[in-house]
Amino acid sequence: MTLINLDQAEYKKLDTKAYALEKRRLQIELLKLQEDVIKNDRKICIVFEGRDTAGKSSAIKFFSEYLRPNNFNYVQLGIPSKWESSHWFQRWEKVLPEKGEISFLDRSWYTRAVTEPIMGYCNERQYRAFMKRVNEWESKLIKNGTELTKFYFSLSKDQQERRMNARKNSQLKYWKLSKNDEKIITKWDAFTLYKQQMFNKTATEESPWVSINSNNKMIGRLTSLRYLLIKTEYENKKILKPARYSRGLDNYSASIEGVKFDNLTYEQFMIITKYSDDT
C-alpha cells in the first residue's frame, strides 16, 4: 500500500496575510502548470474524495479560481442511471480530461468503493467487481497519458459533526444538508472500515492515495495544491519554501454566517472556526 499522509506543519498558524500570500504564490504556479498542459497536450485528472463537509468542493474552487476556464473541467456527476450503474468505468471515461485539459473530480469512481456499498446503492457483486478491476483500469489510463492524482480529504468525527450543525443552523447553507447526509454521519465506523479497505487495495505505487488533514480547510487547500505542484513537472517551475506565521501577531480573521471577525489571536481564531462552515 502506498498511502501519503500530509499534515503541513508549516501552515499550522498562518495569519491572514501569510495565507493570502501563500495562496497567491501557489495559484501562480498552478497557472504555469495549466499553460504547460495546454502547450504540450497533457491530460491531468485530479480526484477529490473524502467524507461529507471535508472541503472537497471548496478545495476545487481554490485550485481553479484563476485558471483558463476553457481548459479545465469541474466534474460532479449525479445519481447514476441504471445503465451507468452497470457500466461503471464507462460512465467515468466520458468525463476524463482530453488533451490540453485539467479535470477536477468532486467525487469519482471511488464512490463505489465506499459510499455506494455502505448506503446500499450497489450490490456486493458490483462492489467486488469494482475493487478487482480498478487498479488495472487506472494503470491503463496512466499508460495512455492521463496524469492521475488522488486526494482524500480527512477530518475528525467531532469536526464533521460541528460542520454539519453549522450547515443545519445556517440561513444560507441549510440546503447543503440533506436527509442522506444525516444518515451518513451515523455510519462513521462503516465509512472508516470501507475507506481503509479502499486504501489497502487501491493505494498503489503507480497511483497512490494522498490523505489530506482537512480539520482546517484553509490548511488543507494549501497542502493539497502544494503537493500537486511539487510532484508535477512543468515549464518555469518555481516552488518556494512554505510561508510561515509570525508569532505574536493578532492578525487572524474568521467569519460565521457572513459576520467577519478581524484582529483575532490564533487561539480565538481556532475557537471560532470550530463553529463555522466557511473555514
How is this structure best described in words?
- The protein has helices spanning 16-39, 56-64, 82-86, 88-93, 115-119, 124-143, 157-168, 179-184, 188-202, 217-231, 266-273, and strands spanning 3-6, 43-50, 72-75, 101-106, 146-154, 209-213, 252-256, 259-264.
- The protein is of the alpha/beta class.
- It has one domain (3-249): 3-Layer(aba) Sandwich (Rossmann fold), CATH 3.40.50.
- Helix 1 (16-39) packs parallel to helix 10 and helix 2 packs across helix 10 (217-231).
Architecture blueprint of SSEs:
Elements: E1 3-6, H1 16-39, E2 43-50, H2 56-64, E3 72-75, H3 82-86, H4 88-93, E4 101-106, H5 115-119, H6 124-143, E5 146-154, H7 157-168, H8 179-184, H9 188-202, E6 209-213, H10 217-231, E7 252-256, E8 259-264, H11 266-273
The CATH level-2 architecture is identified as 3-Layer(aba) Sandwich
Number of strands: 8
The radius of gyration over CA amounts to: 19 Å
Element order: H for helix, E for strand: EHEHEHHEHHEHHHEHEEH
- Average pLDDT, all residues: 87
- Number of helices, where a helix is a run of at least 4 consecutive DSSP H or I residues: 11
In one word, what is the shape?
Answer: globular
Strand neighbour order, sheet with most strands = 1-6-5-2-4-3
State the helical fraction: 40-55%
SSE-based structural type: alpha/beta
Distance separating the two termini: 31 Å
CATH superfamily: P-loop containing nucleotide triphosphate hydrolases
Q: Per DSSP, what share of the residues sits in E-state strands of 2 or more residues?
A: 15-25%
User: What is the makeup of the main sheet?
Assistant: 6 strands, parallel
Counted up, domains total: 1
Unreliable spans are 245-249
CATH class (first level) name: Alpha Beta
What is the CATH topology? Rossmann fold
